[in-house]
Design a protein that fits this description.
binds uridine-diphosphate-N-acetylglucosamine; UDP N-Acetylglucosamine Acyltransferase, domain 1; about 450 residues; elongated; Spore Coat Polysaccharide Biosynthesis Protein SpsA, Chain A; binds calcium ion; 2 domains
Length: about 450
């Protein structure tokens, strides 16, 4: 196998997106397009990747970090000019260079691998990845001669009416003999309707030098989509969503309504998980066996344990144990650590808090900056008062404690093991283990007062 290199074209401004966000950073299922491309192309095994970036490039560099080298294209003078910017980093290399566009997020590593193999087997100087398009509008067309050999690529805007009838399109991905590529680029001119230096002209240039040029036609047109505007972005999202959902379903996950379920690419889901409609699972989430998620739930960067049920709720950056019951309408905010068998009911918010095994917060409570032991029962309407407007403080509730309804626990404070807090208490001092703490005004009943008051009010009229 020859040494392999990649150039990712990502400097175009993406005018047609009408966006302040750099085109290749627009996400498809939560991941920037260019990152999809980079991850898939890297999977074929590369010596080096160079991403060509332009205006606003800092954000692209930030996203890709050390996974790529970068070349700057200061002015966007076309795809051929973009590839030339990688010359300094790559021109001396012996081997095969794949050129891919940062705006074709659906092409898979399998397709890239097939293209490399085809190119190497044919011994070509250039191989175009092509596809038959049901609607080729907007793409460059692949023009073949009578022997069915590739002659050149003509862009939509430069094509004659006959050429526009051709339905074989250039996907924008090529394999080149590295030295032949940089040699031919020197002869590319900008004499065309857009006044740009087209990479696609390299094909005709190599052909004129009697070099071998070929095409690999991919069977799956779905992958080729180039995202130039938001209509195509939505199409990419749809295709990627279907692909990911089908992968999980084949792996033993039940997705009740795949059209309405959004699972991001890095999520891991074990078998026999059931996902109800309107659910979004993202980031690096892991969903363990037999969990039930949804309907209408959003899980981001969470580990969810076996047999846990999450209904109509939002959970972010947290660890949720096994056999936990969450929702409906709960909010698990970052850094929650929910123990096995815990219960978090409706209108409960948990933030930066540990909840021990079997503990229950069943209704209408806020538990933030807290360390709650196991088998604790937190009554309806309990609040950990964690914030004085400047600093946040910790509430500790030890094992087996029972917090009565509508209590305020003013942090920093500790509720001892097995103790009771009476309903309606505002706790400002630590409660020792095994104690009952009552912190509310005593009740006094004034017998007969109501009718006396009513009579007095009547007389005043
Ligand atoms: C390009 C191809 C077309 C192909 C289509 C596939 C050319 C001339 N045309 O057209 O044959 O069918 O892709 O999707 O190559 N870019 C730069 N610098 C530039 C210009 C573009 O880095 O100066 C990057 C863009 O960020 C983008 C990629 O190159 O990722 C393609 O550019 P774009 O303008 O989208 O080309 P298309 O018109 O789609
Ligand atoms: Ca494009």
């Amino acid at each position: 196998m020859k040494k392999r290199y990649a150039i990712i074209l990502a400097a175009g401004q993406g005018t047609r997106m009408k966006s302040k966000l750099y085109k290749v950073l627009h996400p498809v299922l939560g991941k920037p397009m260019v990152q999809h491309v980079l991850e898939q192309v890297k999977a074929v095994g590369l010596e080096e990747v160079v991403t060509v970036v332009g205006f606003g490039s800092d954000k692209v560099k930030e996203h890709l970090g050390n996974d790529s080298k970068f070349a700057l294209q200061e002015e966007q003078l076309g795809t051929g000019h973009a590839v030339m910017q990688a010359e300094e980093l790559l021109m001396d290399k012996e081997g095969t260079t794949i050129v891919v566009c940062g705006d074709t997020p659906l092409i898979t590593k399998e397709t890239f691998e097939q293209l490399f193999e085809h190119h190497e087997k044919e011994g070509s100087k250039a191989t175009i990845l092509t596809a038959k398009a049901p609607n080729p509008f907007g793409y460059g067309r692949v023009i073949r001669n009578e022997q069915n050999e590739v002659e050149r690529i003509v862009e939509q805007k430069d094509a004659s009416p006959e050429e526009l009838q051709v339905d074989e399109i250039n996907t924008g991905t090529f394999c080149f003999d590295n030295k032949a590529l940089f040699g031919a680029l020197k002869d590319v001119s900008n004499d065309n309707s857009q006044g740009e230096y087209y990479l696609t002209d390299v094909i005709e240039i190599l052909k004129e030098k009697s070099e071998k040029v070929s095409a690999y036609t991919m069977p799956n047109f779905d992958e080729t989509l180039g995202v130039n505007d938001r209509v195509a972005l939505a199409q990419a999202e749809k295709t990627m969503k279907r692909r990911i959902n089908e992968y999980h379903m084949r792996n033993g996950v039940s997705i009740i309504d795949p059209e309405n379920t959004y699972i991001q690419p890095d999520v891991v889901i074990e078998s026999d998980v059931v996902i109800y409609p309107g659910t979004i699972i993202g980031g690096k989430s892991i969903i363990r066996e037999n969990a039930i998620i949804g309907p209408n739930s959003e899980i981001h960067n969470c580990e969810v344990g076996e047999n846990t049920v999450i209904k109509q709720s939002v959970a972010t950056d947290s660890k949720i144990g096994a056999r936990v019951n969450i929702g409906p309408f709960a909010h698990i905010r970052p850094d929650a650590n929910i123990g096995d068998g815990a219960k978090i009911g409706n209108f409960v918010e948990i933030k930066k808090a540990e909840l021990g095994e079997g503990s229950k917060v069943s209704h209408l409570s806020y538990i933030g900056d807290a360390k709650v032991g196991s088998n604790v029962n937190i009554g309806c309407g309990t609040i950990t008062v964690n914030y004085d407007g400047k600093n946040k403080y910790l509430t500790t509730i030890e094992d087996d404690a029972f917090i009565g309804c509508n209590s305020n626990l003013i942090a920093p404070v500790t509720i001892g093991k097995g103790s009771y807090v009476a309903a309606g208490s505002t706790i400002t001092k630590d409660v020792p283990s095994d104690a009952l703490s009552v912190a509310r005004a005593r009740q006094s009943n004034k017998e007969g007062y109501a009718s006396r008051l009513k009579n007095r009010l009547k007389e005043r009229k």
